[in-house]
Amino acid sequence: MTNLLKNIRAKIKAGARISDAEALALFNCDDLLAIGELAALANLYANGVKVYFNVNRHVNYTNICVNRCTFCAFSRESEDEDGGYTLALNDILTRAAEASAAGATEIHMVGGLHPDLPFDFYLEILAALKADNPRLHIKAFTAVEIDYFAKLTGQSVTDVIIELKNAGLDSMPGGGAEIFAPEVRKKICPEKITGERWLEVTEQVHHAGLKTNATMLFGHVETFADRVDHLSRLRQLQDRTAGFQAFIPLAFQPDNTRVPGARGVGGVDALKTLAISRIYLDNFRHIKAYWVMLGLKVAQVSLAFGVNDIDGTVVEEQIGHDAGADSPQQLNKEQLVDLIRKAGKLPVERDTLYQELRVY
Ligand code: V47
Ligand code: SF4
């Protein structure tokens, strides 16, 4: 074992932090199994053999978006464009009612930045969802949408969050982070808020008392140094707020996208990135393998590479599948339990805030 790996093992055992330079060295190291073993050790200290999943349903209320990120195959210019849509309130409520009936504890709702919908539309959705399903946790909107609502209304981010919270918002997912480095954003999402703004909005969301997740879209044009920079900014913010629950590296799906020179993600890169995230992000308790983007097999193997959460049943996924993801649209609880058990781990159904609902 090289000195790098020996030193990192000693740090993990001592509960000490690895540096940015060490994280970069890990990305450049070819010993995938050794990195995975270190990540598994870090995860064993944090979570034992438990692997979490939840029963949820994704709802994408519209794919109309003014941003048109080049990596996004989901968005459309307007409802007139082929495949463009905006769900009516009733459609959203029907999906939530179906989810509740199927035992879901969470609705995960995000969408494009629609040019015409008023802020009241979003408040109305939240209030109606809560009135119909008081026990369903609403995890919705990203920092990108919050910033958009603030611009739309001329209100401060804090006031927007307070209104959303009063209407029923319980927590936020981690989308829109992509890669924070400005040079990369210029190529993959030139119209999107800057990485700095994403972090600033998220910090305010945490201060308002809502938990969020964080993501990183990887495998397009970013360098390993860009990934480390992204992780580093997240670790710093988490030191300040402790508001992040899970970190979710999202494997780039290239079909129908427009990112010149994008690489795509192989199994080795996916496992290494998940493992290094676990080792580096010592202040994130949960590292999530989003099976939709990773594929079921890599997601399952990742449970031996430091991952302790495999997301949920999802039910209706558009963002990854529009970009060619070959995973199923949905999994049921039994499939998730089976997948975790066959990886030698203990399946635990959780709610959005990681309260344990049932150990299998
Ligand atoms: O922000 C868009 C990504 C995200 C592509 O917080 C793509 O629990 C891969 O954030 N290839 C939305 N990824 C999904 C997301 C998420 C998913 C699951 C759980 C949670 C959570 C959050 O999807 C976007 C963007 O980064 N995305 N296009 C693509 N072609
Ligand atoms: Fe719009 Fe989000 Fe797609 Fe970017 S990733 S085009 S912000 S829906």
Word description of this protein:
It is a single chain. This protein is an alpha/beta fold and 360 residues long. It has a single domain (19-355), classed as Aldolase class I (TIM Barrel, Alpha-Beta Barrel). It contains 14 helices and ten strands. The strands form three sheets. It has a four-stranded mixed β-sheet with strand order 8-1-9-10, covered by helices on one side. A three-stranded parallel β-sheet has the order 2-3-4, covered by helices on one side. Strand 3, helix 5 (119-132) and strand 4 form a beta-alpha-beta unit. The longest helix is centred in the middle third of the chain and has 18 residues, at 224-241. It is globular. The protein starts with a helix and ends with a strand.
The biggest sheet amounts to: 4 strands, mixed
Bound molecules: ligand V47, iron/sulfur cluster
Q: Which structural category fits the helices and strands?
A: alpha/beta
Globally, the shape reads globular
CATH class: Alpha Beta
Count of discrete structural domains? 1
CATH fold topology: TIM Barrel
Global mean pLDDT? 97
Task: Give the tally of β-strands.
Answer: 10
**Fraction of residues in β-strands:** 5-15%
Radius of gyration: 19 Å
State the helicity in percent bands. 40-55%
CATH superfamily, called what? Aldolase class I
Helix and strand pattern: HHHEEHEHEHHHHEHEHEHHEHEE
